[in-house]
Amino acid sequence: MQKQVYLLFCALCLAATVHAQNITAELDTLLRAYYRRGEFNGSVLIARQGKILLEKGYGYSNLTARTLNDGHTRFQIASATKPFTSTLILKLVSLHKLSLDDKLSKFYPDYPKGDSITVENLLSHTSGIYDYTRDGDFMNNEAGKPNTEEMMMALFKDKPLDFSPGTQWSYSNSGYSMLGYIVPRAAGLSYDKAIRKYIFTPLKMDSSGFDFVHLDSTRKAIGYYADSTGAYNQRAPIVDSSVAFAAGAIYSTVEDLYKWHTGLQQYAIVNKTLQDKAYKPFKNNYGYGWIIDSIYGRRMVSHSGAIWGFRSNFARITEDDVCVILLCNIETPAMTNMTRRILAVLYHQPYTIPQLRVPVQVSAAVLAKYAGFYEIKEIPLRIEMKLENGTLVAYPNNGPRSELMAADATHFFLKDDQDYEIGFDLDESGVPKSMQLRNSIGPRTAVRVP
């Protein structure tokens, strides 16, 4: 009888091992497809219930030196910094060094309307503070240079609030910078030293830091943007850490970020009550430094990041101890689609392997009729379509320029995100009346407007 039980146990262990190997191979096939399509170049770590299913690098961390990405490669994680900042603030709350209800005026008495802006407003993007990244001149000409707190605050401090604090939601890097500026006034430590003391050091995140400009390491990834052909081979400048600061200055590795996930799962930094509060949507599916969504009936908490030459996504299904970490040293827009397909693999849901799509030729006369303005009122989003040198180009009012490739005369996909599809609806006379946008989030209709 004991022998039978032992043999059954061995059989179950073997089956589990084979299943894990199959999942790993399936995940690798998916990631390689994105790499071959030119939409991913970086490092990935995917784990479930304490077991790493895939940890691998794809492509070069440095094209000139021909060094490869791997689990130790250091990337800028950009706005995936925000969960660190929010967790630090919650740690200071637990230490009674500040309160979520504290007014900004407590730390900056002369801040305009600072008596109506709370720490919670800053955490949840409901402060109404102008986002300094909207200042194109500054971002194009000054963001790569060191800036002082005073210089940075001058970009937004005296700008009118976008709305009365707490009444609406608007993503504000300035708000997160203010959280970083508050830290030394509340805790007596600079922002970076506080992150090291309360998060990096306890979790042994030894490959993470802030000053990417001066990081001297063979493990440092070089960020790239695309040339006129769409190839990611142009070395991107680096946004100075004093500019990105508490909104986006951290660099890290997939291995360190997995330590971060594990620490959060174990409530090693703040207690369960405070951490769970961060995961509760405040407005617009945003909590305290986390985007809250659902997938396959489970809550997903995540944050993505985008900065010159780099993209990141850090997604977690906390109830199942699932973690997906994607760090990329090209400016790909495909990270959300990749994450959702990875989760489809983990949860045995249907998905497709991305294939390289070949566009067809459509005459300039046909393309020209699609030029004009289209609007999705509920977001709100306004997109201008232009014809440039025989190519249809989309200009959203709050996003990057995107070139469209034709699948046929009325259906298109984005050149740099082939999963993003656009179809035009025509009236009886052949005039466009709306367009259908389809991506990983779902379909949207944009109506043509004057």
UniProtKB/TrEMBL annotation:
GO terms for molecular function: hydrolase activity. The lineage of its organism: Bacteria, Pseudomonadati, Bacteroidota, Chitinophagia, Chitinophagales. Keywords: Hydrolase, Membrane, Signal. GO terms for cellular component: membrane. It is found in: Membrane. Gene3D superfamilies: DD-peptidase/beta-lactamase superfamily. PANTHER family: D-ALANYL-D-ALANINE-CARBOXYPEPTIDASE/ENDOPEPTIDASE AMPH (PTHR46825), PENICILLIN-BINDING PROTEIN 4 (PTHR46825:SF11). This is Serine hydrolase. Residues 41-343 form the Beta-lactamase-related domain. Residues 1-20 form the signal peptide.
